[in-house]
Structure formats: C-alpha cells, structure tokens
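Example 3.2
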Amino acid sequence: MSRKNHHVVVLVLDGAKPLDVGIPAQVFSNRPSMPYELRVCGAAPGPVTGGEGLSYHVAEGLEAFEHADTIFIPGYREPATTEPPAAVVGALTAAHERGTRLAAISTGAFALAATGLLDGKRATTHWHYTKALAERHPLVRVDENVLFVDEGDVLTSAGAASGIDLCLHLVRRDHGVGLSNHVARRLVAAPYRSGGQAQYVPRSVPEPLGDLFASTREWALAHLAEPLTLEALARNARVSARTFSRRFVEDTGYTPMQWVLRARVDLARELLERTDLSVEQIAGRVGLGTGANLRLHFHRILGTSPTEYRHTFSA
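Structure, written as tokens:
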C-alpha cells in the first residue's frame, strides 16, 4: 500500500472549542506511524481568541489550504448568531473545488454550511444546535440522531467526543482498519462507533447494564470464530434476548447480529491487511465459514472484494 502522506489542515476560527481543535490535531499528529502531515491555521496568522478562556497562536493563514487533502473545521462559540468570515467561506469553497475533503466537528458545521456545500445533503452537529442549523440553512437535511455523517467529500460530526469517531472513520477510509485500530489504542478510545449511533441515549435502566453489554461485546470479539447467536450474547450479558436486543440497538446503532457481522468483516479486513492468509483461511478465522460467504458480506458492506481490498490496503 502506498504511504504517500495525506495533508491535513485544522482551521481555528474565533471562539474555537479546545476539544474540537485538539481531536484532529491529536489523531493526525505528525509521527512515523502515521501517513499524514498536519498543519494548523487560522483566517490569518497570529493570535486567535478561543472558547473556554483559551487562545491560540497559529503560524499560517488560509494559504495553508493550497495543498490540503483534508480540512477540519472545529466547532466554535455562538455559531447560530456568528457569520464565518467571507474569506474563510471562499477559501473553503475553492479548496473543495480543487478536490479537498472538508470535515466539520460539532458547530463547525455552520461554517461548512455557509459554503452551500451541504445543501441537499445530510449533515449533523451538536444536538443542542441541530434546530438552529436547520433554521439557518433550510436546504441542509439535518439529522440530530447520529454521531457523524459521511457524504463523501463533505463530512460532519456531532459534538465533542464524536469528533474522535469521525477522525477514526476517515483513517479507516484512507488506510484501513489496522491503522484505525492502532490510532484508537493510542488514544485509548473505542476502535469504532457507527455513525448511525444516537448522540445520546436517555437511560431508564441502571448504568451497570451498559457495563455488562461492554463486557459482552469484548467477549464476542474474542469468540468471533465460534457460532454466535442472539441467545448466546444475551446469556453472556445475563439479560433476556428481547432486552439485550433492544438495548444493544440503542447503545450501538446496530442489532446484535448486524454488529457481530461487521465485527467479523472488520477482523477479516485486518487479517487481509496484515497477513498472507488465504480468503478461505480468513473466513474460517472470523466465523464466516467459507470464502464465498466472506466475499458476499464484504461486497454488501464495503462494496469491494477481499482480493481488491488486500491489494489496496495490504502493508
């Protein structure tokens, strides 16, 4: 696999939220294990007043966009009443026309929407601001019940920690599940949460139930080669199959068996990236039985074949 470095720029606007800036800066930080080069810029070089009592000093202005492959727009304060600078909107639009991918974290979606590039597309933002985004940009199809939305060359995420999910999703898109899992381990973060997972789940059950489900997911990941049924998962979690299924969907955005299938495909992806095992051998190791079954699910979920995937992402 080619390891040509991908150029990532983080745009710091006035009122930028520290966590929203820090997440892509940390995920895509310049280091030997990462095929990315990171730069941070503002609307102009110099000091930028941030949110939560912090400020930033950026060395570059919008000229940093010229060679960017991906630009992150972190969230900022007062997005519903603050227009992003016209120069920023123009520079983002021009970068997109050159083929640059644009990704907004939290209320950064307001600046991205100001370009018109989200018109007619799905998008999200922090749940507190979804109504304001829909009112300010009525052509955007705002979804308040997801962690992130991938529309190909424009992406948006919900607030705060969901920025990690968006960043890991992009690493997976660019370089496969192996590197994404490596980054997640470095961040001590969950390897992958689906973009379709709810931003927050009102709990009407004791919190320890969530702990049991986390333990069951860990158990399932260690037993993917074995037959895994809804009943077996529920038995491990010590709840009824009906309760387990309902709460699992709320926690993950997937039914239990959808989650197991995707976990198996993810493990197959990592084995394709990091080993020389045949497709038949990998199918057996991940619990999908035959190479034909693995190829079927690979194509349904990823739109490609195991062989093509290995050619693209193998180390």
